[in-house]
Amino acid sequence: MTLMTLKATARASVAVAALAVAAGSAQAEKWDMPMAYAASNFHTEMGVEFADKVRDYTGGAVDITVHPGGSLFKGGEIKRAVQTGQAPIGERFMSAHANEVPLLGWDNLPFLATSYADNAKLWAVAKDQVNAQLADQNLVTLYTCPWPGQGFYFNKEVSSSEDTQGVKFRSYNTATATFAEQLGMIPVQVEAAELSQALATGVAEAFISSGSTGYDRKVWEHLSHYYKVNAWLPRNYVMVNKQVWDGLDATTQASVQKAADETGAACAAKSEELANWYFEQLEANGMTVVDAGPEFLAELQKIGSTMTEDWLAAAGEDGQAILDAFKAAN
Ligand code: PCA
């Protein structure tokens, strides 16, 4: 170590000590953070990076431990755990909660915002209302991060809904269950963490997702075809219990938010960077990865318009306002 770096390190330690003193004798906040997806998934890796940044920027005052893959709470339990304070912080797929709070399906609208840039624009116009509704749920949103575009996995070639009749389909929220039904499929909701098992046991034989989840779950062991549709880019969000958040002083809140803003931006960039790489991995493992054919796509688009209408009916004026603002921004 050079004298310069020694000095810098010493200064940094003093700064950390000073912060600890400034925070009085308050104990470091130790937060367990349940996350829903695989440890090796980019969302989770970014969650770990977020925890590191928070530790750094708060001078150790907030110390987050990430628990991936639904290991602490299952994906479907994470939001409730954070709402009720069983976990101070957590991460989950936002549109999974659209059955309770319809507005949270804002990112699940087929063929509306299919590029990362458009998805960012859509979030920009949806953010305030979505966050307000989450605040009503006792949650403070720290950052969100998009998955790559959604397409269909099957164990055979599919060119139209003639091929999908009676297929057992793994859905991840109410909207995708409806989507499946309109294609004559039989939906069953399964967590990403349990997807490999569902495919292995025949509980499901098709699903909608990104290349990312197919890769994480090694679905080439069970399925043969991926149809790129890029129907939407749904987001995960990292949320904190409101009382826990309100218990932090303003400086600590600002430091955590800075870490969150940086992580949200880095995570979206990572998602975009990996989107095609995932397809390459599916192909390298023997899957056929192609664009959905014109007949299938036309059917999906038709069903997509119904899904948007259903969402608007459920989300009401707030939903319409988001759509209008998005269109005005384009
Ligand atoms: N993967 C998650 C949500 C969206 C995605 O791409 C899943 O399939 O559960």
Describe the protein.
With 330 residues, this protein is α/β, with parallel strands linked by helices. It folds into two domains: 29-147 and 233-276, D-Maltodextrin-Binding Protein, domain 2; 151-232 and 277-329, 3-Layer(aba) Sandwich (D-Maltodextrin-Binding Protein, domain 2). The protein is built from ten helices and eleven strands. It has helices at 3-22, 42-57, 75-83, 116-136, 174-182, 195-200, 211-216, 242-246, 250-284, 294-329, and strands spanning 29-34, 62-67, 89-93, 139-146, 151-154, 168-171, 186-189, 206-209, 225-228, 235-241, 288-291. The strands form three sheets. A six-stranded mixed β-sheet has the order 7-6-8-5-9-11, sandwiched between helices. Strands 3-10-4 form a three-stranded antiparallel β-sheet. The longest helix has 36 residues, at 294-329. The radius of gyration is 21 Å and the shape is globular. The model is unreliable at 1-25 (pLDDT under 50). Residues 93, 147, 172, 192, 209-210, 212-213, 234 line the site of pyroglutamic acid.
Compile the SSE list and pairings.
Layout: H1 3-22, E1 29-34, H2 42-57, E2 62-67, H3 75-83, E3 89-93, H4 116-136, E4 139-146, E5 151-154, E6 168-171, H5 174-182, E7 186-189, H6 195-200, E8 206-209, H7 211-216, E9 225-228, E10 235-241, H8 242-246, H9 250-284, E11 288-291, H10 294-329
Parallel strand pairs: 1-2, 6-7, 6-8, 9-11
Antiparallel strand pairs: 3-10, 4-10, 5-8, 5-9
Bound molecules: pyroglutamic acid.
The site of pyroglutamic acid has 9 residues, from helix 7.
